[in-house]
Amino acid sequence: MEENIRKFLNTILEEATPLIATLNKGVSAAQIMDFERDMGVCLPEDVKTLYQNFNGQKNRENVFFIDGLRWLPMEEIKEKQQDWLRILEKQPNWEELSFDEEEAIDMGWDKAIKNQFYNPKWLPFLTDGSRFMFIDLDPDTNGVYGQIGEIDLVLGSISDSFMDIVDNSLFEWFESLNEDIDEGIVFYDEGMHSLVDHFMKDYSDDVPNIFAPEPDYVSRGGSNVYNYSAENRTDFVLPDRSCVYMEEICNHFERYIGEVDSVFHEIISEYAHIDVHWIKPTEKRPYHVLFTTGMSDYPMYLPKDIEDPTEYSHAELMVYLPADWKIGDEAFKQDDNYWPVYFLKMIARFPHQYKTWMGEGHTIPNGPNAEPIANTNFACILLMPPYLSEEEAFLKLHTEDGTTINFYSLLPLYVEEMDLKLEEGVETLLELFEENQISEVIDVQRKNVAL
Fold it and tell me: Global pTM?
């Protein structure tokens, strides 16, 4: 196993440098013993050897191991196993699900892998959130302890999910991977930031598009207009990462704005894990600031022709609320108090849900017909960097791994203001805001500047 690992690492050092830069330092023998005790398993020696050489991948950027799957560090295996279980628990009577026996025979895993959808002794080591390659420590009668299996959960129709047996051991799987790289069957694709099986790249319909969709039309004022519907939405997926930049983002807000008092955590997340953090009013800043973390866990899908895409691929959102705004779990049970949080979370998730992007000057109506928001006459949200409230150094965070995160504040608009922006451009609307001294702190009674 050591020889296979060394050969692999030497190969990708030359041909896939961005990939090797994501690999974690290996774990110790003591850490492996702790993992085995916690999981109630005994790992095969080849699995131990691999994790002692490198402990999966760092949870950063959009770099994967192979075919869009990330290699999990040992400390994340149990968490991803629980995510796998949560997907299934959304299905009625999921424990009774099984794969078609003839299909299992045809695929060669009948009586090798137990015919079920989940097993606590299946340890996922590669995943994209719904597809799991796993180490099988509870094989069926004809199986091998430590064999490698794969399950692809079809989220919209779980009964159409796919199971396969990949290899008899992690050693054999790595040996095959080295051979495929030598023969050019597997290679590093810079666009996908991943090793890729050329059969998948050439022929699969599942290879992700890395660009945002083209706009449906461009308004008279120069705004790109997109019409999204349920058919544009991607399948439900549990995020395979969370809190990637949370500490750095919170430190950034505390440096420029104020101490973070508390956080409203998500329990179960779709597409991205979005938390909302709260900075309370002070004498110097007599207003609340709420901001997200988690939107930047994944890059957005940018237009093909955007200049310097690395400057715009990651973002987080924030909103300024007056000091008398009611905030807290009890207060948020009322839509009149909760709607800014709703839009923070909805818009933060939107680019990952619809494979698109959010940026300066974008407007998001409240539904296709721009309905009134809660107890207000606002009907749309405008995203703008908080130019009025913050210094220029705050507007972008450059993280330790070189990622640039942009911050956009939520500015609610009336329908007429949204129409004005579409007809004459965002600059015309912002000039009227300046003339009427409209600040970034939300005022539900403010003047409609387009009337």
Answer: 0.57
